[in-house]
Design a protein that fits this description.
binds heme C; Four Helix Bundle (Hemerythrin (Met), subunit A); about 65% helix; mainly alpha; about 160 residues; globular
Length: about 160
């Protein structure tokens, strides 16, 4: 795992390493700075993040369609696509990565990593043809989207603010 700072690690690409599974359970939810992260990002980073979000939303909708059709292979392919975070990997320079790390709290990084680990689990459930597991993992992914938005994107999704 590459490390770019003392206590922060680059989230959106390194997450493909998905060592997150073990970390998530012990994730601290207090003592972290919550609040919208978008305004702390450079315009380029904000744009990259939004592009990624729009792609994973589209992929999630497509996964739903594949799930209700029993198309295991398509579920696997789409979940893998989310996991691989293609846009960010293609567009980010190492300076972008450092800027991103400087701008977001560690908890955000951990949530992103956990989210990507979930997409890997969903891809595996698709490859296994295990539909119960696909439904469970998809539900967990929706929870992960919402939880991160409620904590870090209430400027974009004000209804999630308490
Ligand atoms: C680790 C945190 C995190 C996770 C997990 C996450 N998001 Fe987001 N998402 C954000 C942030 C932060 C924004 C606000 C970006 C902005 O406004 O600049 C956002 C914005 C969005 C947007 C609005 C994009 C736009 O510009 O209109 C969509 C759609 C979206 N997310 C979909 C999803 C979906 C679907 C999932 C799960 C499958 C998900 N997100 C998971 C952090 C996250």
């Amino acid at each position: 795992m590459r490390s770019y700072g003392k206590s922060r690690k680059f989230p959106l690409v390194v997450s493909t390493l998905a060592m997150a599974l073990g970390l998530v359970a012990g994730l601290p939810t207090t003592g972290q700075e919550a609040g919208p992260v978008s305004r702390d990002l450079t315009p380029k980073l904000r744009n990259l993040l939004r592009q990624e979000m729009l792609s994973i939303e589209q992929a999630s909708k497509d996964i739903f369609s594949a799930l209700i059709a029993g198309d295991d292979a398509r579920v696997a392919g789409l979940a893998q696509q989310i996991h691989d975070s293609f846009i960010l990997q293609q567009s980010m320079t190492s300076e972008d990565k450092q800027n991103l790390m400087a701008a977001v709290p560690e908890d955000f990084v951990a949530r992103d990593r956990a989210f990507h680990a979930l997409s890997a689990d969903l891809a595996q459930a698709g490859r296994d043809g295990d539909r119960d597991a696909q439904h469970a993992e998809f539900g967990r992914m929706v929870e992960a989207c919402t939880a991160c938005h409620a904590r870090y994107a209430t400027d974009r999704f004000p209804l999630l603010a308490e």
